[in-house]
Amino acid sequence: MDARQILKDHITKSVELTDAQFDGFYACFKHESFKKGQMLIREGDAVTREYFVLSGCLKTYFLNDELRMTILQFAMPTWWASDYDALYNRHPAAVIVDCVANAEVLSISTDDRERICHEIEAIGHFFRWRTNRGYAASQRRLLSLMTNDTRKRYEDLLEQYPTLFQLVPKHLIASYLGVSRETLSRLYHSSR
């Protein structure tokens, strides 16, 4: 399926657009290809774009003072990624976004997104809907980290996103869950 159709199918799950409206929206995007390990956003960057994943997988993470990675998000096909705090508040990036696997994305600038949201009410609705869903997912993840044990977090992730385990190396899943690679390996083998 081509990039245009993937985005159109994604958008029309939540809003209806005429062909002309979708054409105007799609014209705001830039099609980009990235290689595994390539960074889309580096810590300290000015962030002006957000990314819609067509294929591959991205990860959003930060490194602490000891260079230990904490993964905030994986972005699989039809998911969005950026440093949203930096994007919306116009300060330097605090997180890194890079490719877990080769990725094809559509990117849109903040200025184009804001302009098209004002021009097409349904697009504004779509972005509010997507932001609200993202906020709710982040809240669920935070509550899970605070209240669930490691096994429960692992089982929930496996149930919600089974394809993630084929796309993402286990050491990255361990980082996302906040556990060691060895702990994840024990969970994996005990659940089979």
From TrEMBL:
<feature type="domain" description="Cyclic nucleotide-binding">
    <location>
        <begin position="34"/>
        <end position="116"/>
    </location>
</feature>
<dbReference type="InterPro" id="IPR018490">
    <property type="entry name" value="cNMP-bd_dom_sf"/>
</dbReference>
<dbReference type="InterPro" id="IPR014710">
    <property type="entry name" value="RmlC-like_jellyroll"/>
</dbReference>
<protein>
    <submittedName>
        <fullName>CRP-like cAMP-binding protein</fullName>
    </submittedName>
</protein>
<dbReference type="InterPro" id="IPR000595">
    <property type="entry name" value="cNMP-bd_dom"/>
</dbReference>
<dbReference type="Pfam" id="PF00027">
    <property type="entry name" value="cNMP_binding"/>
</dbReference>
